[in-house]
Specification:
single chain; mainly alpha; 72% helix; 413 residues; Na+/H+ antiporter like fold; 15 helices
Length: 413
């Protein structure tokens, strides 16, 4: 018998084997060194790089510079689930003054971060104005997926101190609020830097209309899904017997319908989670639904990070030192500085302000935004845009991922 013929060693099956081993190792190995929550994301990226470097003839992962659409769709689904789960986590939505730090981060820190990255990108890294604006919009939002370690606990578990409450709501809402600036980059790329031509349309449609519609659709979707799950029929509530699939279907319905009427679907699903949680707030189904969504989210993000590690060496081939320094300045200087300044006068003390300002994690949301933009418009130096995003995510996952457990534990003590 020909042993090599008997053991087919199909590349696809090899990929499943090594990917499964990488997933187990990424979550298990950190436990050998610390009792903190495993810092898996940097290891998943590293294992993705090693797998496709050491194991020959594996199926090729699509390069986002050549095939952005697959990355756009998978990262979009991951962010949708993460945003909805973030909304579900909030046990108590009030008092309203708890939202002041979140509002400061959304309305002050994020626009300043976008502007800072855009200026650095245009003057230092040599991007076009459109590319620099897009880069700012892509890198400014705190990622709702990889920032889960700094968010509040699952439903009914508490842990809603102001730092975690602020970072949870920032990461849940800023993805949708960054979209107007993505559209701004697309408009400048298509029509040039002529605000008189497109400025009013951008303000009325991309800023005002899409945000209002996204918020309204999310609130309506959360209320309707709450009636379906908990209220009608009252004697046989669906939440008492149903799995999370029904709710996930409602989330997809809300997101898809919001996008069909040109609202921001990311805002809609985050608001939907917040509104749904207000209906039968103490019902145990909220915890089951959150755990179901979290399982889907972790599965998708783990596979995405392995795939991202596989393509990262190619993305970094064109990387220049000016772009590396742009990423370093964003993570260690720009976001911490504008975050700190925006939180002046809030209830957060000095150390809490430092933590909130520093933990603006970059991740899957950035992959989605850049994939979305480059699949809708051709930008100058797209390869370099991907290089900056790639190195920023790499640095962020390492620095934030490996430090967050110790920092949050120290802050709690």
């Amino acid at each position: 018998m020909d042993i090599t013929a008997f053991f087919g060693l199909e590349p696809y099956h090899i990929l499943l084997t090594v990917s499964g081993a990488a997933l187990v190792a990424a979550y298990w190995l950190p436990r050998l060194a610390s009792n903190e929550k495993p810092a898996a994301p940097p290891l998943l990226i590293l294992f993705g790089m090693l797998i496709f470097w050491l194991v020959p003839n594996l199926p090729r992962v699509p390069d986002p510079r050549e095939m952005a659409r697959p990355w756009e769709l998978v990262s979009e689904l991951t962010v949708i689930v993460a945003l909805f789960a973030a909304g579900l986590r909030i046990d108590r939505i009030g008092p309203w003054d708890k939202w002041v730090p979140t509002a400061r981060l959304l309305l002050i820190a994020m626009p300043l971060t976008i502007a800072g990255v855009a200026v650095l990108g245009a003057t230092w890294a040599g991007f076009t104005v459109a590319g620099a604006i897009l880069l700012g919009a892509v890198l400014a939002p705190t990622d709702p997926v990889l920032a889960s370690d700094v968010q509040v606990g699952p439903p009914h578990e508490g842990g809603e101190e102001l730092v975690r409450f602020t970072l949870t709501n920032e990461s849940g809402l800023n993805d949708g609020l960054a979209f107007p600036f993505v559209y701004l980059g697309l408009l400048v790329a298509a029509q040039g830097l002529h605000p008189g031509v497109w400025g009013m349309e951008w303000l009325l449609v991309d800023v005002l209309y899409r945000i209002v519609v996204g918020t309204a659709m999310g609130a309506a979707g959360g209320w309707v899904l709450g009636q379906v799950l908990f209220v009608v029929p009252r004697d046989s509530a669906l939440a008492n017997t149903a799995s999370g699939v029904v709710s996930l279907a409602g989330v997809l319905l809300c997101y898809g319908s919001t996008e069909l009427v040109e609202g921001y679907g990311f805002i809609a699903v985050a608001v939907m989670g917040l509104v749904l949680r207000r209906i039968e707030n103490q019902h145990r189904f909220h915890r089951r639904l959150h755990d179901f969504c979290q399982s889907i989210e972790q599965t998708l993000v783990s596979l995405l990070l392995i795939a991202f590690g596989a393509v990262l060496p190619a993305l970094l081939q064109d990387l220049r030192w000016s772009e590396v320094w742009l990423a370093i300045l964003l993570i260690f200087a720009l976001r911490p500085l504008v975050g700190w300044l925006s939180l002046t006068g809030t209830e957060l003390n000095g150390r809490e302000r430092q933590v909130v300002a520093f933990y603006g994690v970059r991740g899957i949301g950035s992959v989605y935004y850049l994939s979305y933009a480059t699949s809708h418009m051709e930008f100058a130096r797209e390869a370099q845009l991907w290089s900056v995003v790639g190195v920023t995510i790499l640095i962020s996952t390492i620095v934030h991922g490996l430090s967050v457990g110790h920092v949050m534990s120290a802050l709690k003590r």
